[in-house]
Amino acid sequence: MHRRSDGAELLWIDRHLVHEGSHHAFARLAERGLPVAEPGLTLAVADHYAPTRARAAGGATPPIRRMIATLSENAARHGIRLYGLDDPRQGIVHVVGPEQGFTL
After folding, report:
1. Distance between CA atoms of 78 and 59, rounded to whole angstroms?
2. pLDDT 10s digits, 11-33
3. Cα(94)–Cα(17) distance, rounded to whole angstroms?
4. What would the CATH number be for the domain defined by 15-99?
5. Which of 16, 43, 56, 89 is the most buried (most CB within 10 A)?
6. Whole-structure pTM over 0.85, yes or no?
7. In what order do the strands lie in the sheet with 16-18?
8. Helices and strands, number each (H, E), in the chain
9. Where are the domains of the chain?
10. Is 58 left (phi over 0), alpha (psi -120 to 50) or beta?
11. Cβ(86)–Cβ(35) under 8 Å?
């Protein structure tokens, strides 16, 4: 953490976890023509809208399938590691980070 002369403090975020709901943030980056600053420190996990049943048959509704696909597209575009629905490491994003040694 760094305290500036004006009293503001800057906190460095060393790891960033994203999920299907992050499409808004990726859209803002695209609007501004910006890349993800540290893709190697970012982990994408399909979990918030992942179907719990009939996953192989595409058990989600069309809008949810689109959100999951958008996460995959954004991860690929920015070079972010993705634990998608077919990845054996996929799970709850805040559990997967520590389980996989991603979070410190």
Report:
1. 27
2. 777 899 999 999 999 999 999 99
3. 8
4. 3.30.499.10
5. 43
6. no
7. 16-18, 42-45, 81-83
8. 3, 5
9. 15-99
10. left
11. no
